[in-house]
Amino acid sequence: MTDTYRYIGKATPRKDAMDIVTGGARFLNDIKMLNMLYGKVLRSPHPHAIIKRIDKSKAEKLEGVEAVLTWEDVPDWRAGTPRYTRILDHKVRYVGDAVALVAATSAEIARQALRLIDVEYEVLPAVFEMEEALKPGAPQLYDELPGNVVISGTPSFGPKSLKEVVMGDVEKGFQEADVITEGTFGYENIPNPLPPEVPGAIALWEEPNKVTLWVSNQASYMDKVVLFHAMGRKVEVRTIGGPCGGSYGSKYMSWQVQCYAALLSRATGKPVKFTFTKEEHLAAFTMRIASRMKARVGIKKDGTVTAVSGTWLIDTGHYSMTTQAQVAVGCGEVQIAVRCGNWDLKPVIVCTNRNASGIVRGFGGQELKCTLIPLLSLAMEKLNIDPFDFLKKNFVKPGDGYFWRDGIWYTYRGVDYTKAMEKGAERFGWKEKWKGWLKPAAVDGTKRRGIGVGVHGNADIGEDASEANVRLNPDGTALLFSCVTEHGTGQRSNLVKMVAEVLQLPMDSVSVTPSDSLINPYEMGPAGSRGTYAIGSAAIAAAEDAKRKLFELVAPLLQAEPSELETTDGIVFVKGHPEKKIPWKAMSFDRTITGYGRFEPDYTLTNCMITFVEVEVDTESGKVTLQRVVNATDVGQVIDPQGLEGQLNGCLGSGGIDSALFEETILDRSDGHILNANMIDYKWRTFSELPPIGNVVFETPFPSHRFHAVGVGEIATSPGPVAVLMAVSNAIGVWLHEYPVTPERVLKALGKVRPRSRKGSAA
Amino acid sequence: MNPPHKDFFGELRDALKKSLPFNRIAKLTVPLTCKKARKQVNREKALGEEVAMRSGKIARSKSTRSVARSGTSVARRSPKATRKLEKETIRLTVNGEPHGLKIGKKPNETDPSHTLAYTLRETLGLTGTKVSCDNGACGCCTVLMDGKAVLSCMTLTIECDGKNVTTVEGLNDPKTQKLDPLQQAFIDHTAFQCGFCTPGIIMSAKALLQENPSPAEEDVKEALSGNFCRCISHYQVVKAVLAASRGGR
Q: Minimal Cα–Cα distance from B223 to chain A, Å?
């Protein structure tokens, strides 16, 4: 297949490679402007309090300070779903909540000014635990959210937005089951995706109601959309994206920092730059949702799941912007991974007095499955069912269906992933290593090996709409208009590659516009692995449209029909008669040709990733070492082999596999402080601890894409965490059900240390 | 700079080195005693502010933190040392170009609290060096000083008198503008994803290859163990560095 393409599937250098390796890539904090001011936030030391009084007079007098804003000074800008969270409020709801904003001529002066602001708080009781928050009489975060329950459903997914998984007859399902298990399981260590680049923005306000923002985000067009609504639909917003220093979902939403910059620019008339510190990034920017499920499952001896019923609690922290969307997608994804006719799974989203949760790779489904698979594992153990066989059997097959995020039933029409899964198992050596539940794969003195497996798939590869334009120039070059920012997947280069393939131009002759919302058409952005199928299809359609217009224009000059023409390297020729040719400049030097492409949402396809892990547990120290990972997937057609490898290797970081091994955000539940909001105490994997990763990639063509490809990048993090839990349980012969598997928890499970309450931990 | 100043910064540097997580692997095995960690931070914060008040000179919180870590004897000496330094000009070479930086508090002067990362980025406009944690934990800000990899966010500019600094912008051949083989290997292997941590990784790798032109895979991993990357470009980076080493070419 690969050989029929000029670029698709071949290793080509990223278009931005030179900038990245020479330091020429201009990230947000590398931009400086004339008269630029620096913004800082005064943050609350209390998890829940009313601001009784703020005295900012001393701060305003400090030389170099140009604006100090409190909730009394700012318009009623709000975001959240629904829009109940004010940009600055008279109430603070977590340790780190914004109390005042300062703009000054230097960051140092702004920091000094923060110390001069005098705030009097009336401290309120706070709540950090989901079930506590739901009790009558619990502290209430918002008047709009009685009982701290977030209103379910999200308007952007339509009127039937998926709020639960309910179908069939669960009672009948349980009657058919050979084994029923129940229990409560959590994935509550709220790992931070932690991109290296801190969140930030630069804003320039122009009176009366126009603002331009330089953003460092995953989806710069959507920033414009989000801000338009957050700013009361009265402000004309332009967003200019640049390279994004990592996001993993998290920088899809940065409305707060963007609004801070906009408000201060509005107050001063000057450009204002805001960049968070790493501490703010870890303690006052979004992290994963916390997930806890109390459920009951029934399965048959052959691995058929007959019923799932229960409650899924989701802790979103002090507010929700996208949690309802994550719940909707998670509910869809669980049906893709676990085929079952009888469901009664009810999610409840809860607000607590901690920093907010937001988007992270895995988008709801990872969090849900990290709690459901351990419960299913208990049932599998009772029936001695191999988890690989179980996951393979129960993953969606062509002709099966699911309710997707919009509440509509879709029939899956993609490829059967069984072959890819089996090849992955073979590469890993699953059959040889699997000795049964709670049995180690190998024992060497005090060291015990265990294996585990997880699976994930989503139907977001075709989510939402994308638009693109392609302009053909008479000099034989092409320009793609697409509001896609580069956040690490190489998507901008891959879009160029697809356009170059359609137009048969050298890749150097195709470029892509800056991701500026003013010049580009609508773009949802690269998320949910939609870059290849959704964004790619829009770019391809635009290139095809432009090519068609070019052929219509020059056909008379070649005395041929447009359908008889082809083009290569900026020359149009008659198929089969390469001597009958004409260069693009025949379109005339004073003309350009623009094609338009649009992708309409398509939820009938899902991607798939299965991950096998092997761990070694030191039963003396409790340390768990990841020995080996094998990922297997089918992408239809590889677009960029090196980029794909990078995405699959990404399974470890950004709150992925390592969120089961050592990553956690530690919240002190006595006072709401995050205790490890720095990169020394927040654990991350280093170069010297790399396990071997094997990536198995199948290419079974997906007919509905021009190059038969689908994306897979987002989901790399998702199957692994539950596989680690399974592997450690098998290694030590005792169930471990808490993330991450710290030495303390392992030793506790082995009965080597006495259980004690761990205040800092999430559960 | 006269010897006492060098001693002062030597002490400071040693203190910082001790506090750096050079071997993070060991840390992973130890359950975090959260309360203790926070108390430590509070202690440092309090001590830092006290020192800052006494010295009246050190404005940046990082510097106060660093001084606090290195003990009170250093703190007592810092005002004098700083006063003395204010009269001086720091001369350092960056990417082959000599710079004279006047020490002082005025705009366009180099404050004694400025880190090398700050000076490179904000004063000299060399934004290729990235700052991520600004706390010596992630390696994003790595540059070469006299051939050795240093964390420019944990190095004060006033420590750099007479030093020769190379940043990622200085790796190209100055005459031909040709890329360093290491940079070319990063392009060929797509040894980056978002690219934010890449300059720091390249500089750490450069220091390794200068010291050991034929490293083994384990040497590469060890040399880069202080560099954070979240996209997980690690595997492709190791391949690229080995390809650029003497054995790989």
A: 8
Say if the Cβ atoms of A21 and B198 lie within 8 Å.
yes
| Count of domains observed in chain A | 3
Is B194 close to A678, i.e. CB distance below 8 A? no
- Residue ranges per structural domain of chain B: 3-170, 181-244
Q: Which residues of A touch B195 (CB under 8 A)?
A: 16, 19-20, 25, 243, 245, 488
pLDDT at B10 > cutoff 70: no
For A449, the token pair is 């090996």
Same domain, A485 and A413: no
Beta-carbon contacts below 8 Å between A and B? 213
Alpha-carbon gap: A21 to the closest alpha carbon of chain B (Å): 6
Q: Do both A315 and A262 map to the same domain?
A: no
Instruction: Report if residue A166 sits inside a domain.
Output: no
Q: How far is A559 from chain B (nearest CA, A)?
A: 45
- For the stretch A339-378, pLDDT in tens is 999 999 999 999 999 999 999 999 999 999 999 999 999 9
**Residue A170 Cα, gap to closest chain B Cα (Å):** 41
- Among A599, A622, A655, identify where a domain stops: A599
Q: Is there a domain that residue A22 lies in?
A: yes
pTM of the shown model: 0.92
**Strand runs (DSSP E) across A3-128, as ranges?**
37-43, 49-55, 65-70, 78-79, 85-86, 91-92, 98-104, 118-123
Q: Which residues contact A124 (CB under 8 A, 6 or more apart)?
A: A48, A49, A50, A139
Chain A residues close to B132, C-beta within 8 Å: 196-198, 245, 278, 679
Domain range for A314 is 290-461+604-749
Pick the closest to residue A673 from A100, A122, A282, A115 (CA basis). A282
Domain boundaries B3-170, CATH class:
alpha beta
A410-442 pLDDT, tens digit each: 999 999 999 999 999 999 999 999 999 999 999
Terminal C-alpha separation, chain B: 42
Is A230 domain-assigned? Answer: yes
The verdict on a CB contact (< 8 Å) between A278 and B133 is yes
CB contact under 8 Å between A25 and B195, yes or no, is yes
Strands (E), A76-153: 78-79, 85-86, 91-92, 98-104, 118-123
Do A482 and A408 share a domain, yes or no?
Answer: no
Q: Quick check: B36 contacting A, CB < 8 Å? A: no
Per-residue pLDDT, B106: 86
Q: Are residues A211 and A274 in the same domain?
A: yes
Element (H, E) at A744: helix A743-749
The domain that holds A301 is classified in CATH as 3.30.365.10
The single-letter code of the amino acid at A132 is E
Looking at the structure, tell me whether residues A417 and A490 fall in a common domain. Answer: no
Query: Do A682 and A658 belong together in one domain?
Result: yes
Instruction: Using CA coordinates, name the residue in chain A closest to B21.
Output: A680
Residue B97 token pair: 């170009």
> What is the C-alpha separation between A42 and A110, in angstroms, rounded?
10
Q: List Cα–Cα distances, B204 to A25, B151, B227, in angstroms.
A: 19, 10, 8
Q: In this structure, what CATH number is given to the domain that contains residue A55?
A: 3.90.1170.50
DSSP 3-state of A19 = helix
> Is some CB atom of chain B closer than 8 A to the CB atom of A10?
no
Question: Which ipTM was obtained for this model?
Answer: 0.97
Which of B127, B131, B232 to probe the A interface (max A CBs under 10 A)?
A: B232
- Identify the residue whose tokens are 């669980």: A334
Q: Which residue of A has its CA nearest to B195?
A: A20
A20 shares contact with chain B (CB less than 8 Å): yes
Q: Are residues A574 and A636 in the same domain?
A: no
Interface of A with B in 719-758 (CB under 8 A): 742-744
B-chain CB neighbours of A679 within 8 Å are 132-133, 135, 137-138, 228
CATH topology of domain B181-244: DNA polymerase; domain 1 (1.10.150)
